[in-house]
Design brief:
With 210 residues, the chain is mainly β. Helix content is 8%, strand content 49%. The strands form 2 sheets. Strands 1, 2, 3, 4, 5, 6, 7, 8, 9, 10, 13, 14, 15 and 16 form a 14-stranded mixed beta sheet that branches. It has a two-stranded antiparallel ribbon with strand order 11-12.
Length: 210
């Protein structure tokens, strides 16, 4: 197994209402799960290959709960990545060189039956985890915008967190609102649904906890 590790920031938007039942071992409130995710790697490596500053993203579409499988996905990799970096990122994203079910990459890969060809392109991605704001733009494929949940009376930002001491994606996530539209082979649309903003520190064995 080639060792890998990275730190970074992520924005995830799925079809569930704020909170997302899946975070609590529940069933998706729409009966299905569609999701868009973006990750900006700050520092990282795959073996001797550096991954600093690269970005990745994905669209997922499951017809029912994630654990029932039959999902479809497409991966996006920063066009600035060289061939070794592209191979490394795709291996990480598809759950290879990872303990079984130790990361979200491994978990989700096990539920996908149709993996579309990866796209190497410009990934415009900005996220402020504490501020619960972000934007993911991939020309011809993805437009996602995240913002804070707002009090329906005053309109002021409302802050909530999910803490997962034994999770496989993050230790703490800031919860906000997000909207997405996608085009291409995996088409989804979400408006003002669950937005997840998190700092990530992952390796072959799962979350790296301080």
């Amino acid at each position: 197994m080639t060792p890998w590790e990275f730190t970074g920031k992520s924005l995830v938007n799925c079809t569930c209402t704020y909170g997302c039942n899946c975070q609590f071992n529940g069933l998706p409130d729409k009966g299905h799960c569609h999701a868009v995710a973006g990750i900006a790697i700050e520092k990282g490596h795959y073996g001797g290959t550096r991954l600093d500053g690269l970005r990745i993203a994905a669209i997922f579409k499951w017809p029912g709960p994630i654990h029932e499988g039959n999902g479809e996905a497409i991966a996006f990799v920063d066009q600035g990545a060289d061939p070794q970096q592209r191979e490394a990122l795709l291996k990480i994203m598809t759950g290879q060189d990872t303990d079984p079910f130790a990361t979200m990459f491994s978990v989700y890969a096990s539920t996908v039956t149709k993996m579309n060809d990866p796209v190497f392109t410009t990934i415009d991605f900005e996220v402020d985890v504490d501020g619960r704001v972000g934007r993911l733009h991939i020309e011809d494929y993805v437009e996602t915008v995240g913002e804070p949940i707002r009090n329906p009376v005053t309109g002021s930002p409302s802050r909530a967190q999910i803490v997962q001491p034994e999770g496989f994606e993050y230790a703490v996530a800031e919860i906000g609102s997000a909207s997405s539209t996608t085009k291409g082979p995996v088409s989804v649309a979400m408006q003002n649904t669950y937005g997840q903003f998190a700092n990530l520190h992952l390796n072959n064995h799962g979350i790296v906890r301080s």
